[in-house]
Amino acid sequence: MAASTSLRFAFVLFWISVLASTALSDLVISKIDRRVDLTSQIVRVVSTLKVENRGHDTVSEVLLPFPDIQAKNMAYLKSSYHEGKGKGKQSAISLPVTLVHPEGMPPELTFYSVSLPRGLGKGDSFTLDVLTVFAHSLKPFPAEITQADAQLVVYQDSAYYISPYEVKVQTLAVRLPSGRVESYTKYPSTKLVDSEIKYGPFENLPPFSYIPIAVHFESSYPFVVVQELEREIEISHWGNVQITEHYNLVHGGAHIKGGFSRIDYQSRPPMRGESSIRHLIARLPPRAHSVYYRDEIGNISTSHLWANSKMTHFEIEPRYPLFGGWRTSFTIGYGLPLRDFLFESDGKRFLNTTFGCPINEIIIDHLIVKVVLPEGSKEISATVPFITNQWQEVKYSHLDIVGRPVIVLEKTNVVPEHNMHFQVYYKFNNLALLMEPFLLISGFFFLFIACIVYMHTDMSISKSSASYLAKQQLDEVRATVQQVQNIINRVLSVHNKLETSLRDLSRTGDVQSCKAVRKAADGLFKDLAKELKPLLGFLQSSPQASQIWPKVEELVAKEKEMQEKLMAKHSTVVDSFEKKHAKRDVENRVASIEQKLAILRQEVDELLDTIDDF
Amino acid sequence: MASKPITSPVPVEWYPSLSVLMLSIGLVLTASFFIYEATSSKRSRSLSKEITIGAVASFFLGFGSLFLLLATGVYV
């Protein structure tokens, strides 16, 4: 592996020497400091370039070349500069970077072009910072180790900064996780101080100068590589943002050779496998709730959660420690309050959340972010600060009719630097929120309607059989008896009204209103008697009613008697009131009637009860 | 850019109590609906009364079950 890489570098070198004469010569890099950070599995290179224009034409862009071997692992490239100098330095302002294919350049190099904020005139200089992040650039060597071995890795680069411009002064510093270095390429002016290797300063180098270096060192950092991560962000306007993350994880470091000993792992710390993945820490947003951690076979109980007002720490342990080449897959999920992530501006709603995964210092080979918007969202667009593949899908979930629109963002080679905020804009009408309850309501209503229809339909097959006809008639009789009961009850309520009017009369002495009540009652009695007549006629003639008919007849008779008595009482009382008889006299006169009324009332009540049981 | 956060139409903390309240009203109405169906005879039954009770009961049951789903963490 190392040998083939060197060969390719040599090939590059060949091309470089051929094409060096055609290099751009207007710009000169007067000073460049490169700092390579190898403390984790992710390689971060911070370069500070000072470019100077020695030509006559104004220059507004700087080319940054990368050998293809590096370019294919490059995950992130950011260029920025600081306005002002010294103490007046302000925060970094980023510069636009684009991939370009300039003519006449070696094909083994990939070029990026940084646009400067202003054109550089003759003799002007400009200082910019470039951060490049590489994934999978540390190769384990040896590629297989036993459980007790330390993990050794190799990093390759050029000691000289590869540039299409002449470089005046340059230095390179490589920071390692520890001072334990197996070997490193030594040139004059190379020194190892603590855990840092320094190359340079090198002076006055022509364009495309190149000398390879290799650093072979110990890194016990667990190489957590997520081969595929699918994040699903589901928005519910009922107050929740649900995030579900499916991880497909592999230990990307040196493969394990020989067996795994749990006893060594548990009891002998030096033998335990320093570079294995013991646990992962996810930093979830504050106020995360309903956090879970599971895989295909169920809940994984080895997890811990701490929460404070700024962050929710979620520590998860895989089911087994992960050694080189071992893989696992699991799912974590959590809910977040809606108000922290969903906003409204200019009539549009937007989700504002982070792109990458919440676990620290991992490389994601293939990341898919799905934002599931509520049903009825329109005019969906996503704003992501870097290039992603985007497309739209439809997802069917709880209580959906047409499905929820999903915007999918896909990106490969994702590093923690990509953990930036992105926005998904969409339009949503609040009335669409009522779709879900409406669906539930119509479901229940359908049930009731089904019951009503069932109760109202006649399902019998033979509609002419004797038993069927008998049942029909019995039903009719029952309905008629119920109607009779209703009428009697209404009559009784009129009785009560009359009694009340009498009491009012003795209290207020208002004869007119009492007479009015009487008149109304007379009318009502007449109407009700009219209503009652056909019902009684039907009951009398129906053979099915033979049992109940005597009772009904008796009831009607008793009621009539009661009505007469009451009328008599009413007339007597009103009459004596008008003639101003003594109160006692009146009471004496109606006492006998009242007695009879009470008896009748009791009888009528009993009859109503017996009919009720029919 | 003035952007204001969006919140749920009903405070999230109310979901459990709302669900209990509306479901119990809905179940009482459902019970009264079935009692009416069982006790009234075919001829004396009034369709409009049945439909009214059914509609009101399904309104309460619908919202009650929605809030039950939300309270248990199934954000629809």
UniProtKB/TrEMBL annotation, chain A:
Is Endoplasmic reticulum one of the keywords?
yes
- What does the record list as GO biological process? protein N-linked glycosylation via asparagine
Q: Where is the signal peptide?
A: 1-25
Would the keyword Nucleotide-binding turn up in this protein's UniProt record? no
Source domain of life: Eukaryota
The topology of this chain with respect to the membrane is: Single-pass type I membrane protein
Subunit structure, as described in the record: Component of the oligosaccharyltransferase (OST) complex.
State the function annotated in the UniProt record: Subunit of the oligosaccharyl transferase (OST) complex that catalyzes the initial transfer of a defined glycan (Glc(3)Man(9)GlcNAc(2) in eukaryotes) from the lipid carrier dolichol-pyrophosphate to an asparagine residue within an Asn-X-Ser/Thr consensus motif in nascent polypeptide chains, the first step in protein N-glycosylation. N-glycosylation occurs cotranslationally and the complex associates with the Sec61 complex at the channel-forming translocon complex that mediates protein translocation across the endoplasmic reticulum (ER). All subunits are required for a maximal enzyme activity.
According to UniProt, the name of this protein is Dolichyl-diphosphooligosaccharide--protein glycosyltransferase subunit 1
Organism per entry: Dioscorea zingiberensis
Automatic annotation (TrEMBL), chain B:
The answer on whether this UniProt entry bears the keyword Lipoprotein reads no
Entry GO terms, CC: oligosaccharyltransferase complex
Q: Where in the cell is it found?
A: Membrane
Q: Which GO terms describe its biological process?
A: protein N-linked glycosylation
Main site of residence?
Answer: membrane
Q: Function of this protein?
A: Subunit of the oligosaccharyl transferase (OST) complex that catalyzes the initial transfer of a defined glycan (Glc(3)Man(9)GlcNAc(2) in eukaryotes) from the lipid carrier dolichol-pyrophosphate to an asparagine residue within an Asn-X-Ser/Thr consensus motif in nascent polypeptide chains, the first step in protein N-glycosylation. N-glycosylation occurs cotranslationally and the complex associates with the Sec61 complex at the channel-forming translocon complex that mediates protein translocation across the endoplasmic reticulum (ER). All subunits are required for a maximal enzyme activity.
Q: How does it assemble?
A: Component of the oligosaccharyltransferase (OST) complex.
Question: What is the name listed in the Swiss-Prot or TrEMBL entry for this protein?
Answer: Dolichyl-diphosphooligosaccharide-protein glycosyltransferase subunit OST5
What is the species of this protein?
Answer: Dioscorea zingiberensis
The lineage, from the top, is:
Eukaryota, Viridiplantae, Streptophyta, Embryophyta, Tracheophyta
